[in-house]
Amino acid sequence: MSNSNTILIDGQEVPFEPGETVLAAAKKADVYIPHLCFHPEVTVHGSCKLCTVKINGRCVSSCLTKASSGMAVENSSEEILDLRKQLIELLFAEGNHYCPTCELSGNCQLQALAYEFGITHTRFPLQYPIREMDATHPDIILDRDRCINCSLCRRASAQVDKKDVFSLAGRGPETYLQVHSSDGTLGQSKLTVDDLAANICPVGALFHKKNNYSQRPGQRIYDNQSIGEVGNQRLERVKEGENHG
């Protein structure tokens, strides 16, 4: 390699800073690695596993793995792509996702990933979980049917908004997003419409009430470009305070 601080991602040289993760280095080099639980303003969680790559024969989460000189990363091998496809299918099977009628259709990262991977159905049995919706807040709806337990809203609320509105409760398939308030509802919480936690959801679990379906087909983020082409566009817009609900 021409630079000691470089890694190879599918044969492409990618520079990195000491201490930087593989995912962070890839993002800076415009090399797309799929992910749903990563955001640059909050700590890494590593829960969605969509950023899994293969390094030296081992499958690892690129958001948690520090880059090191001489590292050879497989990002788009048949094995890795099929693994990611299975993970996306599992997310659809475990929740209640009805894309055609969803307020986030066209702006949803999960939906965009399904298109990217050519997913029209899931090989796993649909679970049809019964989950509680919370519409008590004047501006925000929490639809747990769509929640993928990525923990982005929890981390954003605790680390950026400094309000600690959310946590994950339960275990395994019974895990759900819990609201910290006097009566456990979103309406009695400290969440406000401008909080990062209210705008960071990669799916349609948290969305704004007052501008649903405000974007026509053809105007939404993923209508004309794939999520791989768009890359970090949605994350940067969320960072700037723009809502896509």
Note the total helix count: 6
The rough form would be described as: globular
CATH class of the largest domain: Alpha Beta
Distance between the termini: 44 Å
Query: Which stretches of 5+ consecutive residues score pLDDT under 50?
Result: 234-245
The proportion of strand residues reads: 5-15%
Topology order in helix (H) and strand (E) letters: EEHEEEHHEEHEEEHH
Radius of gyration: 18 Å
The portion of residues assigned to helices is 10-25%
Question: Taking all residues together, what is the mean pLDDT?
Answer: 91
Task: Give the number of DSSP strands.
Answer: 10
CATH architectural label of the largest domain:
2-Layer Sandwich
The CATH topology annotation of the largest domain reads as: Alpha-Beta Plaits
Number of domains: 2
Q: Which structural class best describes the helix and strand composition?
A: alpha+beta
Major sheet description = 5 strands, mixed
Give the strand line-up of the largest sheet: 2-1-5-3-4
Pfam families: Fer2_4, Fer4_Nqo3, NADH-G_4Fe-4S_3
Subunit structure: Composed of 13 different subunits. Subunits NuoCD, E, F, and G constitute the peripheral sector of the complex.
InterPro entries: 2Fe-2S_ferredoxin-like_sf, 2Fe-2S_ferredoxin-type, NAD-red_Hydgase_HoxS_gsu, NADH_UbQ_OxRdtase_75kDa_su_CS, NADH_UbQ_OxRdtase_ferredoxin, NADH_UbQ_OxRdtase_Gsu_4Fe4S-bd
Cofactor: [4Fe-4S] cluster; [2Fe-2S] cluster
